[in-house]
Amino acid sequence: MKKILFAILVAFFTIPLFSLPNGFSSAKLGMSIDSLKDALKNDHQFGYRGDRDVSLSPSDGQYLIETDGSLSGFSFLERCWFQFSDDKLYIITLNLDRSKIDHYSVFSKLCEKYGNPSELSPKKSVWKDDGVIMSLEKPLTLKYVDAKTFDSKKDSSNVQKTTAENARDEFLDSL
């Protein structure tokens, strides 16, 4: 009986309080470009101005929507970027307005809601679950990434490490 109670307590304290959100407000990972455009038109905090905020990379068919939340009368958002892969939203990047909110307040709220980050450095804090990678980066950028799409893109890239990156890894291995 004690072992079962202990296992339940361990599981309770190691599982995040809530699963990570799959986006912010009306912008959700996995949305089509048309669905996101409709959502942004109705959510004024993003400052979406229509198709002039959409760009296309002609080489690989990747879409990017950039918005300016500072155009909205009262928004905690500044610039926001929405990246698509295979016509699905897979990265949401939100630059928050540092004149209205601070890094510590955002970090504290994220820890309260989702537990301690799985990665922590002076540059960023990262929370992960099976579907979402959420990061808070300095000075004040919040990112939501579709983990499966990101991993598949990372696995399929042929980018080799630079000499400097290899030298850094060798140095760290020698410690």
Write a concise keyword list for the protein shown above.
single chain, 175 residues, alpha+beta, two-stranded antiparallel ribbon, 30% strand
Shape: globular
Distance N to C terminus: 45 Å
Which percent range fits the helix content? 25-40%
Major sheet, described briefly? 8 strands, antiparallel
Give the neighbour order of strands across the main sheet. Answer: 3-4-5-6-10-9-8-7
Order of helices and strands: HEEHEEEEHEEEEHH
Mean pLDDT: 86
Task: List how many beta strands DSSP finds.
Answer: 10
Strand content: 25-35%
Rounded to an integer in angstroms, the radius of gyration calculated over CA atoms is: 19 Å
**Individual helix count:** 5
Structural class: alpha+beta
Low-confidence stretches: 9-14
Describe this structure in words.
- With 175 residues, the protein is of the alpha+beta class.
- Helix content is 33%, strand content 30%.
- The protein has five helices and ten strands, in the order αββαββββαββββαα.
- The strands form two sheets. It has an eight-stranded antiparallel sheet. A two-stranded antiparallel sheet has the order 1-2.
- β5 and β6 (88-96) form a beta hairpin.
- The radius of gyration is 19 Å and the shape is globular.
- The termini are far apart.
- The relative contact order is 0.13.
- The model is unreliable at 9-14 (pLDDT under 50).
